[in-house]
Amino acid sequence: MLAEIITIGDEILIGQIVDTNSAFISKTLNGIGVKVFQITSIQDEEHHILTALEDAKNRADLVIVTGGLGPTKDDVTKETFCKFLDDKLVKNEKVLQNIKHIFKTYVKRVPLPSNLSQALVPSTATILNNIHGTAPGMWMEKENTVFVSMPGVPYEMKYLLTQEVLPRVVKRYNRPHIYHKTLLTYGKGESEIQEHIKDWEEALPNDIKLAYLPSLGRVRLRLSSTGPNEEQLKKAVGAQMDTLHELLVDIAVGYEDETNIQERISALLQSKSQSLSLAESCTGGAIAQEITAVPGASVYFKGSVVPYETHQKVTVLGIDETIIQKNTVVSAQVAKAMATKCVRLFGSDYALATTGIAGPTKGDATDEVGTVYIAIASPKGVFAEKFSFGNLRERVIKKATNKAFEMLLKEILKN
Amino acid sequence: MLAEIITIGDEILIGQIVDTNSAFISKTLNGIGVKVFQITSIQDEEHHILTALEDAKNRADLVIVTGGLGPTKDDVTKETFCKFLDDKLVKNEKVLQNIKHIFKTYVKRVPLPSNLSQALVPSTATILNNIHGTAPGMWMEKENTVFVSMPGVPYEMKYLLTQEVLPRVVKRYNRPHIYHKTLLTYGKGESEIQEHIKDWEEALPNDIKLAYLPSLGRVRLRLSSTGPNEEQLKKAVGAQMDTLHELLVDIAVGYEDETNIQERISALLQSKSQSLSLAESCTGGAIAQEITAVPGASVYFKGSVVPYETHQKVTVLGIDETIIQKNTVVSAQVAKAMATKCVRLFGSDYALATTGIAGPTKGDATDEVGTVYIAIASPKGVFAEKFSFGNLRERVIKKATNKAFEMLLKEILKN
């Protein structure tokens, strides 16, 4: 079966916000064997919505629509659905009670008429109860295609999709299984990898698809297959993946379906009852932010310092000022001293340290923009590596963050 | 004139990556008066690409296509453009030289045949030179619609769009002006705001459009207008915005077109030669990461500590252990002590501190998940506020980060 996603809202089309909802919806639907054929972002405008609904109806069995359900008058989605379905808006008592409950419990004021108007829904819609907000989810149908309308607020949408929409989709449709397995590799480009695995790739059966997904220092290799029997799919894709892993054993770090690299580090450190701290200069908190975004980080993550000013590396971390004077602040010696002091300051088993020039200007450094030293202190000692990550600030920070996780994982696996 | 964006790649449709390119392209085109009518994400598959190109041709003057230009065999965009344009691939000498140059200078190995095949382009395409990568940009035409094909790698796409595509668009098309002005507000919901400004909104002229953009504790109010005369647009929108700002003076913090809140804080601190440091517990580096993502942060940002483990608040920040014992670690007293110690540790004028329970579990705390204290130490003293940000980890961190910036801006403006 095929699904499509339609996001409604001028804010996406003028580039004011990035559409993160569609990725979440696609991934979730994929997980239960529903293939997303197309994602379309359209204007908050009746004619455009009607056209998009009609086009999607002709291609898909299920159309997920987000956005345009606010209490304010720039939102026209519900009225447009009535036109599309030849239906009319009626007040829904259950939705009204939910709105009143949310205002009483969380908003702590009396709802305005515009808030209460969110209880108006197309008469044929099945209501999906939104415990996180006042706009209800709606499940509607036209000529055997199901249309689901949800608010665009990400956590409301996520709740409705996983708790209300998914069980209904599972019940209604026979779905094939879709199975993806993704190998994470570090350190080689996609063309080099392709050259290395070309004989294997040529011989890949037609029903297994290979995709190369390059991004800043990583290439992910994804194998995908679709079919009625989940066990067979897993076996067929798994066997090919084993061969691929063997071919790329020097640069492979793990499978992404099972875990990403932070989660793998987290699991390893927890299983060994070891801990981590960070001293981030040029990455400015980006590594800590990725680590603490994952629940349970507090089990192994002791904490971090961002000694952004050169001087703070001495006063906060306590490294010897002469090391900076002799080697400059962006140097292997300073990176190593930061990591060593970080282990002592936080009492952790491992410490990661970064010092470099993210750009666009050089600051206190003499090296080129993009130069980054990453050091790791472990129970076995301390070492640093030098990198050149180019001259785009965002890319330097991201590449340094990725590289730091890669080095740390390799080091933990060694010990 | 109308533009459309087509992104090619299964990785978007299976939710493996978030499409950030489209937001950048939309915003950039909008800035030169080009309206983006629709964004469509499609499969890396010939028939789907052909259909999407044909549909877009019938609606738009300019179609920007990203993705599907890698050296590996899962990318079919160029071959499909040849079919669409009734053209054939020919080797382009300039592109070939660029590929060889990039391999010699950056990759530091001999290009493989698959790398050199990236020099094959449709014979009628105008080449847009990609200094950051081996896949060229291409400018093609069919029945008076221009098609631009670019690689999906974000920094390559950004370079090509701004340096190569934009000047050609400006030269070729007469464009109206599109003018947006966005007011940032904090602390009231969209329906409350609407109720408060309804008389003004009713009287808004038809050619000025108002949009409400709510997100975790903020509502942005955007006024938009399109027309031939830029000065008239700015004047008309500006006059309405002045009235709106006056109506919402208690909750308005600034205009987003001019600056976002971090940039405003940055500009204010720099103009006063004042500095900032952070002690982030529950936000885990998220505030530092947002601050250091902006070039020039080193001028006013001294550094930060993430004392993630309770114990580190004592050993690293140096707060009195009895304060924690008496009040628990998630308390106004601890937040204030963190901010005060942070000012001393980093020698900064301001410090922001966060302590709370991001969830899903409570850790060392007795309070409910979602409870966050944010403290600010300033030259005038220290204070803390308590918040309840719900029980979704990602949302708690994001809301606390937004709120911290809001409190800091207000405090700086007072001093």
Descriptive tags:
homodimer; 415 residues; alpha/beta; Molybdenum Cofactor Biosythetic Enzyme, Chain A; Alpha-Beta Plaits; Maf protein; 3 domains; 6-stranded mixed beta sheet; 5-stranded mixed beta sheet; 42% helix; globular; MoaB/Mog-like_dom_sf (chains A, B)
Protein model, in words:
Chain A is of the alpha/beta class. Chain A has three domains: 2-172, 3-Layer(aba) Sandwich (Molybdenum Cofactor Biosythetic Enzyme, Chain A), CATH 3.40.980.10; 177-255, Alpha-Beta Plaits; 261-414, Maf protein. Helices cover 42% and strands 26% of the residues of chain A. The first copy, chain A, is built from 15 helices and 17 strands. Chain A has helices at residues 10-13, 21-31, 46-59, 77-85, 93-107, 113-116, 154-172, 190-202, 230-247, 261-271, 286-292, 310-315, 321-327, 332-346, 393-414, and strands at residues 2-8, 35-42, 62-66, 89-91, 120-122, 126-128, 137-142, 145-150, 177-186, 209-215, 218-227, 252-255, 276-280, 301-306, 350-356, 371-378, 381-388. The first copy, chain A, has a six-stranded mixed sheet, sandwiched between helices. Chain A has a five-stranded mixed sheet with strand order 14-13-15-16-17, sandwiched between helices. A four-stranded antiparallel sheet of chain A has the order 10-11-9-12. In chain A, helix 11 (286-292) links the parallel strand 13 (276-280) and strand 14 (301-306). In chain A, helix 2 (21-31) packs parallel to helix 7, helix 3 packs across helix 4 and helix 10 packs parallel to helix 15. The model of chain A has no long low-confidence stretch (mean pLDDT 90). Chains A and B meet through helix 1, helix 2, strand 2, helix 8 and strand 10 of A and helix 1, helix 2, strand 2, helix 8 and strand 10 of B. Strand 14 (301-306) of chain A pairs antiparallel with strand 14 of chain B, so a sheet runs across the interface.
